[in-house]
């Protein structure tokens, strides 16, 4: 029975089917949905929209926390419902629609979306669709496995549709900490001084009269599709652990380091996993997404506390966590993404940010989003919030991609998400380049010699040597800066027409 | 008499000549000097260093607030004293030494340098050389026309050399507000809620036993070399004022707007100047450098309060201000640059940041530093602190440079300091592109049609049209992305071998 999840009885009459609820969403509207890295997403109303779009014109601007699971971005893209998508996605079908120019994708720093909404610099939310475990006696919405932008979407929306998900455990109640920065120009400091501080409410406070419909669901979150640690990610973790040991020896860090942020994806997860066999302890996380590695670190008694905006777990880890939420609950908190990613908090806590690069260049500029400078992978996500404002900004990547045909270290990146000023360490399985306090010419030597795959090193040395004859703070042979990428576009590999290229076929 | 400027009598015996004081600085040392955009720089000890370098080996790493005046960077570069220079400069001779690879220039976000020093991620300061108006009874150092990084340099240095400048008015006492964020991991919120809040001390607190020498000087600051507003900068200001009027009409801003930050340079100064003839009033500035325009706005009764880290004034404006400091004093405060540029404060106050681009691309990525992607102009300065974290990030530039031979709007910038996510508006004398909430394909149309010089528009439309056939979130013809720059390198103009190019000769 779902009624024990709707404590405000006057809302019982609002319970309807997904199709009926979805009628509140009309052609041309701006819709804010819960959902962040495949968790806590609204699961049935979006599908009803897709259905309806097969019969009548229906295009919406869709805002979420981050990427959605349950194939929702896929289904919506296939049904051509999306005219605009903000601020992050990670679905192959939607990606295609974005890169073809069908869907206008507004890739944003994840801390900024609701800040812009609140100051009305983005179109206002007509309808918010929020997954919840329950509704409180006052109409407060208790989110599920992510908060993301749900709180501000619900607070600002004309109308709210709540999807109560019976599959999400009631043990989650109390896990959330909903704090919304006060309005400028009278904003006060965010009173958060350690990752474990609780500064807000355990629910999203809304006027219940704006709750237009409630839909009951029982679908599970999608599981994360993380590939397990391998030899290379282990090597990356090893280099990083060795670096931190060195920092501890130098007295710059304690054995608890500084609070850790780790980006989405397989590599960042594997790197954190590598901390299990490290000498560090009483670690804390202040991150955006919490992946399997968070729970592995809890179980290994390495991690004291973890703050995030969403849980993104594999099937196995999800079963473990949701089967025994209480075991972890007093060491966990979920916050709105504008708090998890807030520049103020990131700088104050002095985070160590670990994010993944698609490619980096010899001077330490990082491309996290655009393959060949043009085709969107996922989006910048929170990486810019963290890299710019944290204590130490680490970027990890395997030194080569596509079986060695592409080097992830190139003369010049084809798109810059993180400029050299925001990149302190680059780590590949080959080694680590500590770029702090170095000029570009010094950085180039370290990146080439420490991080690049040996197959590409001679070529990079040659480029750099010739670039030096042209001079400059950041020497380049401008007409060749993208020659590796052009080679790959033409021949399928950056190796060009060489014996190595033939071997990599 | 200088003794009334050294209230701690036990320090009287430390007064020596510049040459003797400079002996504390030895080959290989790391030196932190006061000075920010040509003001408040140590003026005689650096020259004594240059002198000594003609007789004996002497190389130092030099850190400052920002650029120096009094030809100090020039003289030090000519004497080959600088092995490393951090974090900003603007001198043609030093620039040459940087671009030739002689001086390692570590270009940094201006809020980060002392943060990195404090956490020992940069080499420690051996000697700090700080210009002061006076020393208090407890040995506190009262800075002059800039604070910059002086406070933390003095607090962290082994030894301190103070240059007491008799030419700097004692009326400046009380103008400064020295607040140093507490140490991580126990850092507290910075208690600053409006630009006029005073949260620290009017002097730099140091243990007087570390004051190793005091030198008496009476040199004036260098005057700013700002070119006055012209037709084009007036047009830029006009577009921006019109934009803000629109925002006020829409109810997004009040007629006091949000606190303003304006970057260094002629264009930003001229743009602020343009606010004199605007309908806005009770404006506030929360900026890094305060230029002539700040005082023009005071005199026009448009500006209520201005917070900065340095004053950088023309001869005329300097005479007006320093002749009558008291007239402005209760509407002014100077802060350490890590507070003026702090992400926490920038986001909380919701600043409007106005900075200058060297070039921008059709998608809104901005290059502020590297001509042709290689040769350093000045440095990123504080523009990254502001652009990433403010309420509205504006970039201004004239649409063409070098008499029309170069377009400041290009297909792809050759270096990215500010990625598209950090750029809300681009304004040239041609017009304004409001990029908020737009995808790259939408941005390109606006930037080409509104901001580009008509001479280059057809060429850009052609590039963009062909780029579209390749697809992508951010379409490019990768092999031609830098063709305009390469054209200019070859022929002196981006117009290539065309009639327009011949006419521009
Ligand atoms: C960069 C990012 C895509 C890497 O993801 P990942 O899962 O860790 O890494 P993978 O090695 O599996 O790479 C993902 C894909 O990029 C491809 N790739 C990796 N390096 C590449 C390169 N240099 N050139 C082209 N493609 C590359 C991989 O081949 C893989 O493609 P596939 O999906 O077709 O197999 C991902 O981390 C991301 O989207 N980051 C941006 C957002 C972010 O950093 N958020 C942080 C805060 S949460
Ligand atoms: C970008 C910057 C150099 C512009 O300075 P400015 O004085 O406002 O503008 P100007 O038009 O006079 O340009 C300065 C020089 O750059 C050149 N320039 C301008 N656009 C150019 C372009 N697209 N390509 C090449 N050179 C260009 C000008 O010709 C001029 O050269 P000159 O000194 O040889 O005459 C300056 O604002 C800067 O250094 N910014 C980075 C730091 C910053 O933004 N700090 C902000 C916080 S304080």
UniProtKB/TrEMBL annotation, chains A, B:
Q: Start and end of every Acetyl-CoA hydrolase/transferase C-terminal domain? A: 320-459
Q: Where is the Acetyl-CoA hydrolase/transferase N-terminal domain?
A: 14-215
- Which Pfam families is this protein grouped with? AcetylCoA_hyd_C, AcetylCoA_hydro
Task: Respond yes or no to whether keyword Hydrolase is given for this record.
Answer: yes
Q: InterPro entries per the record?
A: AcetylCoA_hyd_C (IPR026888), AcetylCoA_hyd_C_sf (IPR038460), ActCoA_hydro (IPR046433), ActCoA_hydro_N (IPR003702), NagB/RpiA_transferase-like (IPR037171), Succinate_CoA_transferase (IPR017821)
**Keywords tagged on the record:** Hydrolase
Which domain of life does this protein belong to? Bacteria
State one molecular function term (GO): hydrolase activity
Key word Transmembrane helix present in the record? no
SUPFAM superfamilies (alphabetical): NagB/RpiA/CoA transferase-like
Which family, according to UniProt? Belongs to the acetyl-CoA hydrolase/transferase family.
Quote the NCBIfam families the UniProt record gives.
Answer: YgfH_subfam
- What's the protein name? Acetyl-CoA hydrolase/transferase family protein
Species of the source: Phaeospirillum tilakii
